[in-house]
Amino acid sequence: MRWYIVKTVLLIICVLLIAIVLLQSNKAEGTSQIISGGNSDLFSQRKERGLELFISRLTFALGGLFFIICILMNI
Fold first, then answer.
1. Whether pTM exceeds 0.85
2. pLDDT tens sequence across 45-55
3. Cα–Cα distance between 73 and 51 in angstroms, integer?
């Protein structure tokens, strides 16, 4: 297998993964209240819908691809 192709794909996945993680919504809006003891709905059950769900699934898929490619490169 041509390793320069695999390394290029891995680099593209890394850049996409960074961009997708930065696009995710801030679910920990009240983290300062955790330290101060404030009542926060940080751990409440919020369903992801629409774009948030797509971004979440894409992050999971890109993370899995990154993990698999890294393992295959070391075998």
1. no
2. 667 778 888 99
3. 32
